[in-house]
Amino acid sequence: MTSPSPCSVPTTRRFDSERDTMNQLRPDPFSPYQFYTAEQWAEFRADTPQTLSAEELQRLRSLNDPIDLGEVRRIYLSLSRLLSSYVEASQRLYAQRKRFLDIDDTQKTPFIIGIAGSVAVGKSTTSRILKELLARWPSSPKVDLVTTDGFLYPNATLRDKELMARKGFPESYDIGALLRFLSWIKAGARNVRAPLYSHLTYDVRDSEYQIVDRPDILIVEGINVLQVRDLPEDGKMVPFVSDFFDFSIYIDAEEAHIHDWYLERFKLLRQTAFQNAESFFHRYAQIGEAAALEIAEGLWRDINRRNLRENILPTRPRADLILRKGRDHLVEQVALRKL
Ligand SMILES: Nc1ncnc2c1ncn2[C@@H]1O[C@H](COP(=O)(O)OP(=O)(O)O)[C@@H](O)[C@H]1O
Ligand SMILES: CC(C)(COP(=O)(O)O)[C@@H](O)C(=O)NCCC(=O)O
């Protein structure tokens, strides 16, 4: 296959928010990333077969995500092919290291993919599609997906710590539990439990867990997965969640678009999930649309946008791959780390 050439000329793009103007993805000769338009990226698909049907895709996509099979062809098949070469290379390296150390065991180590990005940017859809595509490789690997919301502290604890308005910020997660989970997975432990979160009750589920049993590939999705922590002065060791990743992806979009998607989703949820009397947000289905949208604006501005600016967007340069979406949710640009 002849490789498509990357975009070499900086693209002139309009960024509405002041924040994005400072952080825009701008191809430059010294960037650690190689930039591709969606069309250039699509050529890397080569002969990777399209294994998803329209019905399956419908099931995988989130509420307000218009993703179609064309987008799977353009973006996700190339990504699946790239990841297959990373997984093969990592398995070879792992086997060589065992030979070097004269270790005689057949235990496998899962390949871990981290998926980061703002609330409402579409991480869930990307993660579910990747999970399906990777599981359909000819080698039929076992692929599991874990979301980090299960590792949030329960609401009772967040209330005690006065962190309810900081849900999703680094301090709202039990990072120790997430790190322990990842070390067990990497060590090849069997039947590791991951806690689960309910968007309906807006809380961690009580005594309900997902069992992760030695997958070949584990996808770990969450807004916080590329965050680094301050180093303590007492010399205590502080591993980062991303230390466990073999590959990481950041889903990116202009802040103004993510804001609109959050609001659009809130409107849709008012007509669907919030109608359920069990929903934490049920009261927002019962008030007028203008009042409900004002509340959604506040949640976006005071929690999710703040978190995006302070904790999430600053982690973008740590990703191996960045998928930059346009207004219509479709990926317009792909940046792959070359260094
Ligand atoms: N209040 C809610 N009620 C029901 N589902 C929700 C609610 N908020 C978010 N979701 C769903 O939870 C999933 C994760 O959402 P989010 O954390 O914003 O990440 P992303 O939009 O990047 O996937 C999405 O599928 C979304 O549709
Ligand atoms: C649960 C979330 C923090 C996302 O968690 P993640 O799976 O990314 O760890 C987010 O969906 C959320 O609830 N944010 C708080 C503000 C809000 O209600 O939108």
Briefly note the CATH topology name.
Answer: Rossmann fold
User: Roughly how many Å apart are the termini?
Assistant: 22 Å
| CATH superfamily membership | P-loop containing nucleotide triphosphate hydrolases
Main beta sheet: strand number and arrangement?
A: 7 strands, mixed
Low-pLDDT stretches are 1-23
| Alpha-beta classification | alpha/beta
> Can you identify the CATH class?
Alpha Beta
Number of helices: 10
Total domain count: 1
Could you say which overall geometry the principal axes of the C-alpha atoms support?
Answer: globular
Report the radius of gyration as a whole number of Å. 20 Å
Beta-strand percentage? 15-25%
CATH architecture: 3-Layer(aba) Sandwich
Bound molecules: adenosine-5'-diphosphate, the ligand CC(C)(COP(=O)(O)O)[C@@H](O)C(=O)NCCC(=O)O
Q: Residue-averaged pLDDT, rounded?
A: 90
As a percent range, the share of helical residues equals 25-40%
Question: What order do the helices and strands follow?
Answer: HEHHHEHEHHEEEEHHHEE
Strand order within the widest beta sheet: 1-9-8-7-2-6-3
What attributes does this structure have?
10 helices; binds the ligand CC(C)(COP(=O)(O)O)[C@@H](O)C(=O)NCCC(=O)O; disordered N terminus; alpha/beta; 17% strand; single chain; Rossmann fold; two-stranded antiparallel sheet; binds adenosine-5'-diphosphate; 339 residues; globular
